[in-house]
Amino acid sequence: LISTPCRQFSVGYNHSGRESSLMRAQIWRHHREDHGGLISQALRHHGIEVVESLVGPFGTPTSDDTADFLVVLGSSESVYDETLPWLSGEMDELRRRIDDGVRVLGICFGAQMLCLVHGGRVAKAPQGELGWYHISTRTPLLPTGPWFQYHNDHCEVPPTAEILGQTDLAIQAFAIGQHLGVQFHPEVDSGQLRDWFAADTDAQRSGASIAQFIEDAEMYDTELRENADQLVRLFLGL
User: How crowded is the C-beta side of 153, counted as CA atoms within 13 Å?
Assistant: First the structure.
């Protein structure tokens, strides 16, 4: 389902057909401490220009008709929380991008948005996942890990989805047409973990092994970069 190569876009042109020096990816961040991280780096490695935008509580995403790709990052909120004043506008903009042919990579909350837009369901997971995990995969194109998990909700994907990876607790990767959703965080490096946990007072109080998570990220650094690049290659259809 994800195999259609990004070469479907003419080199030197964006999806709207207007001439452009590079294909472009927009990244939606829901917190100031979020970064495109290793995913941004991998996209740039493959010749794609990257622009990051603060959305969610910072405002509804503005239309960006020059973006060929969209990456939607995680959030501490839940996609089924109908009290969020910004969620419906962001969901509408995501639908519009999909209708316009923009290829979407959803990460954690972003994957859950992608699931809902295509008729799936998102619910609180029987058990959350926090820390470094390996996953079972159904394609050699998706690395088994290590991947960082940081979630309490899970996707019940629609029939149109192809499940690409999972753990015993949750679906971890799925494709719907040209779009890819992952429950784990391929963008994470040690710097991202430091910023997240500095802002997450609940995690600080919970006794979570924060120092060990960061130490592991430093130890896994080369592997994490290779995994992120392989995931981007899967997303782009390379």
Answer: 24
197: alpha, beta or left? (left if phi > 0; alpha if psi -120 to 50)? alpha
Tokens for 182?
């992952």
Residue 188: alpha-carbon gap to chain centroid = 11
For residue 134, count other CB atoms closer than 10 A to its CB: 13
Low-confidence ranges of the chain (pLDDT < 50): 1-20
**Known active-site residue 185:** yes
3-state secondary structure of 110: helix
Length of the chain (residues): 238
- Amino acid letter, residue 204: Q
Q: Which tokens sit at 35? A: 């970064």
35, 154, 179, 185: which one is catalytic? 185
**Annotated catalytic residue within 6, 108, 115, 155:** 108
pTM score: 0.90
Question: Is 45 marked active-site?
Answer: no
> Tokens 């995994």 sit at which residue?
227
pLDDT of 191 reads: 96
